[in-house]
Amino acid sequence: MLILVILVILVASIWAGLLLAYRIPLQRLWREPALAVPVLIVESDDWGPGPPAHAAALGRIVDILARHRDATGRAAVMTIGAILAIPDNEAIRRNGLRWHDSRTLLAPDFDAIRKALIQGQELGVLALQLHGMTHYWPPTFLKAMADDKLVRDWILTSDGVETETLPSPIQSRWTDTSVLPSQPLSVETIRAAVAEEVSRFQDCFGVRPTVAVPPTFVWNRDVEQAWVEHGIQVIVTPGRRLTLRDAEGRPGGCDRTMLNAERGASGAIYLVRDIYFEPALGHRVEPTLAEIARHVRLGRPALIETHRVNFTGTQEQRERSLAELDRLLSRARERWPDMRFLSSAELAERLAQRDPSMVEQRLSLRLSIWIGRAAAIDRLRKLAWITGLAIPAWLFQVARRFSGKT
Asked: Glycoside hydrolase family 57 N-terminal domain spans which residues (predicted)?
């Protein structure tokens, strides 16, 4: 009997030690709201100044979104990460590539695309978000004109619309990639740039932005603070904050991770977007549905990333991407009849308020979801099985499934 007591104490001590070692991530996972219903948001970045064909593509997207209704009758929503200006390559060529010129979304040439974005928002199927004044940092772009043959060739041969075809490091707006590893921008410079882009967003769309999506997901706490000071309430993230481009030009310098509904030091609410659906790169519906299912099991919203280029390339590419988007929404609705469609701003508000119509309140279901989230921590899962801590967690999950009680 004494041996049994000693063994129980020993096992309990090991389990307590393991839980203590992982207490911070486990506490964060518990505090992350668990959704009571599936939530799907399609997020599309890089839309901005472009030809009438881009407006036509948006019209096709709006038609598809409007056809799909969730359990409440709400149409599907695509958030738009809006870019407000592009390089004026014709003017840059005229000035001999000596200085940077730009064209904004307010130029008459871009009336069709701007009106299409506003109309989609008025219909409730597009939700406009701030992606950036430009998809690059202008001084970096100017230096690259002199130093980078790829950038020079791009200026000499393109109309400046497809900034997504620039070298990847150049596309980061909130770090100076004229040297690698990239260097931080000054706080004063950041504040001035944020003030400009927020003001221009309002000029273009008649409202101030409340959601920001950092270009290439590279930004820092100074950018975040400036955004909040100018009315941004929500930041869409990949689940971590990358602050620079490393010596190889890759995003790096992670200084924090985040979960849905966590708040930064600035007070901004974070959302995590980590499902990728790029038909132009060969992505298809079935793997995307599997990712959505994983998020549903873990009580998390499915924020799906898809870029403008999918819908503005060749005709074959456009048609394939539109068909896949339509099929994705159809299959998701079939698989999850209680699916909800929301904008990112609406989701963040509901999560922050712990809206009982959307956020799980039942303790047993919250505990079940929490166990599933904890199991996704690879090292913790392995140690839990080695020490036996996984056994009571597994038994709880099995009992809950078989009992059907909540």
From this structure: 187-244
